[in-house]
UniProtKB/TrEMBL annotation:
The keyword Electron transport does not apply. The keyword Cell membrane applies. The lineage of its organism: Bacteria, Bacillati, Actinomycetota, Actinomycetes, Pseudonocardiales. This is ABC-2 type transport system ATP-binding protein. It comes from Amycolatopsis endophytica. Belongs to the ABC transporter superfamily. Drug exporter-1 (DrugE1) (TC 3.A.1.105) family.
Length: 307
């Protein structure tokens, strides 16, 4: 549904995109991740016809974003980081207004507004001014507005920024419902947990290029194996464990972190420690996260917004 090949863009002598390649299959969600200034927002602006590339090609729904920009706009919905709602109007009035702007008749716009209020669990709030809404309700209304024309492709630019955990989970449920209905989603997010939760595939951009792409699980496997974190109550037990497990293992304080491959390795390590008399006070099995992937491939942790 989305095809990007060799996309390049520069502002003056500053190269922002240096040949981005990206594919998003119909009915799937791809999360676009990367450090600040990596080129994610520029990529989205090009795909939504707001910005022209210097070179390369991009097609959405089979339409070229430059030569067939009008056709692209007819099949996409966009939700930006800032909600695009009139906070003085009611939720229902916002939806009707946008329906009329999309050239729906008055009756059709009202019917569509009612449908979307119901879909996003906003029917009871539909007659209230948006300024009385919570952050999560306002974000859901913004998503509803982007679906006025039932577009098959949806671009979500950090849709849950600033929301509390409960509101964020509500938006996630909404995105899942959209996917179940066959909508194709390109998501940029500052929350790696969000990408892990929602994305079929993740594309990591760094310095204007896609440096890694795959399912969340396949990207985690690139970082390394699972780790068994072992905490010891005393310095003596800790030193004994280091002798038993070997110098290649590392830890902080009285904790050792040992790479493992499945339950068999965990049992073997614990048996060896027990036989040696190195008493374990606590343990945890840690799997690689997208945060580990981010740090490994970009050289910096995923802290704050990753626009």
């Amino acid at each position: 549904m989305i095809e990007v090949s060799g996309l390049c863009k520069a502002f003056g002598d500053r190269e922002v995109l240096g040949g981005v390649d990206l594919t998003v299959e119909r009915g799937s969600v791809v999360a676009l991740l990367g450090p600040n200034g990596a080129g994610k927002s520029t990529t989205v602006k090009i795909l939504t016809t707001l910005l022209a590339p210097d070179s390369g090609t991009a097609r959405v729904g089979g339409f070229d974003v430059v030569r067939q920009a009008r056709e692209v706009r007819r099949i996409i919905g966009v939700t930006g980081q800032q909600t695009a709602v009139d906070r003085i109007l009611t939720g229902h009035e916002n939806l009707v207004m946008m329906g009329r702007l999309f050239r729906l008749g008055t009756a059709a716009a009202r019917r569509r507004a009612d449908e979307l209020l119901d879909r996003f669990d906003l029917t009871e709030a539909g007659g209230r001014p948006v300024k009385t809404y919570s952050g999560g309700m306002e974000r859901r209304l913004d998503l509803a507005i982007s679906l006025i024309t039932a577009p098959p492709v949806l671009f979500l630019d950090e849709p849950t920024t600033g929301l509390d955990p409960r509101s964020r989970a509500g938006v996630w449920d909404t995105v899942r419902d959209l996917l179940a209905g066959g909508v194709t989603v390109l998501l940029t997010t500052q929350y790696l947990e969000e990408a892990d939760e929602l994305a079929d595939r993740v594309a990591l951009i760094d310095n204007g290029r896609v440096v890694a792409e795959g399912t969340p699980e396949s990207l985690k496997q690139r970082v390394g194996s699972e780790r068994l974190d072992l905490t010891f109550a005393t310095a003596g037990a800790f030193e004994l464990a280091r002798l038993v497990l070997g110098p290649a293992h590392f830890g902080e304080g009285h904790t050792l972190s040992v790479p493992v491959d499945g339950a068999h390795d965990v049992r073997e390590i614990l048996n060896r420690l027990e036989q040696a008399g190195a008493q374990v006070a606590d343990l945890a099995l840690t799997r690689p996260t997208l945060d580990d992937v981010f740090l490994s491939l970009t050289g910096e942790p995923a802290i704050g917004a990753t626009r």
